[in-house]
Amino acid sequence: MLGYDQKMLAKEAVLRSFKLKGRAIDLYVLPEYLFVPNAVSRLFAKVVQINEGDIVFDIGTGTGVLAVWSALQPSAEVHAVDPVLEHCELARQNAHLHGVDHKLHAFHGSLFEPLPKNLKANVIIGDVSGIADGPGKALGWYSSEVPTGGGDGTEVITDMLRQTHRYLAPGGILYFPVAIGLSDDDKIMRVARQCFESLKRVVDVWFPLSEEEYEIVSCCLPPTLLERVRKKGSRMAWNGHIYEATGPKLG
Ligand SMILES: C[S@@+](CC[C@H](N)C(=O)[O-])C[C@H]1O[C@@H](n2cnc3c(N)ncnc32)[C@H](O)[C@@H]1O
């Protein structure tokens, strides 16, 4: 925990504009310490479908980018969760900034644990940490305040996949990311197949690494993962997927 109180956070945070599905959204962020929305956040906004009256969970909300975006859709309510206290506070401030604080509720804690009992979602955005600790920290994507996906990048995502069946309303959809090369994607997909009847890949994008980034990554990734970082054109790149999971199997 950074130990910021509400007033200090409001003073230190900076307003940045993020383009989601062609729409610019201003959000408070704290770049050195907290997670800053990135290309993957934008891809989630592109593929997540929210219908009128949907209840949305945004698990791993960070400073609330996808929660605010979901609250600006015709959703009924949005419940956002993050284990970093300051993320939750900024998510609340961002909800206020966009006039959606009446329908966006941010909870401090892990996965589904802090949510109101018996509440189920039509849409779960599961953009939780899915990058292995080594590259996540070394590349500067995760500060020391923000938990990564553990040693092989799978810890948070696989826990979420195993628990989702208890929190999805009938016909509901979970969206989750897989970082091929930067996590053990075989393990994530094995668990995903155990937990869901249907998995549809809705995003498949290569993210180029600079020479310096590749050097950093090659020092801290086991060879079995590093071999999945491939040459695309003149640059090395990692492959990002987003899946739509439906038909949760009972655990
Ligand atoms: C890749 S970031 C995405 C943040 C945000 N969705 C965005 O697009 O900016 C992953 C987020 O998952 C959160 N996270 C890590 N472990 C978690 C857990 N056990 N439960 C919920 N969120 C978690 C991190 O704190 C971080 O904010």
Structure in words:
The chain has one domain (6-248): 3-Layer(aba) Sandwich (Rossmann fold). 30% of the residues lie in helices and 31% in strands. It has nine helices and ten strands. It has helices at 6-12, 39-47, 65-71, 85-97, 133-138, 155-163, 185-195, 211-220, 223-226; strands spanning 14-20, 23-29, 55-59, 77-82, 104-108, 121-125, 168-180, 196-208, 230-232, 235-248. It binds S-adenosylmethionine. S-adenosylmethionine (SAM) is lined by residues 35, 37, 41, 59-62, 65-66, 81-84, 87, 110-111, 127-129, 146-147, 156. S-adenosylmethionine binds at residues 35, 37, 41, 59-62, 65-66, 81-84, 87, 110-111, 127-129, 146-147, 156.
Strand content: 25-35%
Measured between the Cα atoms of the first and last residue, the distance is: 33 Å
CATH topology: Rossmann fold
In the CATH scheme, the class would be Alpha Beta
Mean pLDDT: 95
Listed once per kind, the bound small molecules are:
S-adenosylmethionine
Major sheet characteristics: 8 strands, mixed
Would you report the number of β strands? 10
Which structural class do you get from the secondary structure elements?
alpha/beta
Succession of helices and strands: HEEHEHEHEEHHEHEHHEE
Q: What is the general shape?
A: globular
* CATH superfamily descriptor: Vaccinia Virus protein VP39
Helix content: 25-40%
| Cα Rg | 17 Å
Q: Uncertain regions: pLDDT < 50 for 5+ in a row?
A: none
> What is the helix tally?
9
- What number of structural domains do the residues give? 1
The name of the CATH architecture is 3-Layer(aba) Sandwich
